[in-house]
Amino acid sequence: MRRHTKILVTLLVLTGCLVQLVPFYLALTTAFKEQSDLSSVWAFPFAAITWDNLAAAIAQGGVLRATFNSAVVTVIATGLTCMLAALAAYPLARRRTRLNRGVEFTILAVMMVPPLSILVPLYSLLNGLGLLDTYAGLILPLVCLELPRAIFLYTQFLRAVPLSLEEAARVDGASRLQTLRIIIFPLLKPVTVTVIILTAVYVWNEFALSSYIMTSTEMRTLAPSIAAFFGANGSNVNAAVAGSLIGVVPILIAYLFLQRYFMKGMLAGAEK
Amino acid sequence: MSATAHPHQATPAPRPHRPPRPAGASINLMYVPALVLFAVFIIYPVLQGVSIAMTNWDGYSSRRAFVGLENFARVFSDPNFSTAMTNTFIYGVGSTVIQQVLGLLFAVLLDQKLRGRQIARAIIYLPVLVSPVVMGLMYYLVFRYHQGALNDILGVFGAAPVSWMSDAGVAIGVIVVVNSLQFMGISMLIYLSGLQGIPQEIREAAALDGSIGWNQFRSITIPQLMPAFASSVVLNLIGGLKLYDVIQVLTGGGPGYATNSVSTLIGRTYFGNQAAGYAAAQGVVLFLVIVVCTVALNWWFDRTRSHLEN
Question: Do B35 and A84 touch (CB under 8 A)?
Answer without folding.
Answer: no
